Request: fold
Amino acid sequence: MRANKFCLGTKCVFLIIRKISATKFLLVILVSIKYFFGLIFLIVPYVYMFLRERNIFIFITIYCLIKMLT
Reply:
């Protein structure tokens, strides 16, 4: 019973992948990588400035909020 459900699931996945063209699939991957690295580059200076100076912490917080909203 489980094997049948798994086979049906893989068939559905293969049909979905066939419907999506290769360029759209690559575009989705590239956009997800872009946002992943964007989050890393937002967090790193945030932590660095927090460890260095407490006064800049507020400005970096506002900067990160603006970057996330836009």
The CA atoms of residues 12 and 48 lie 46 Å apart.
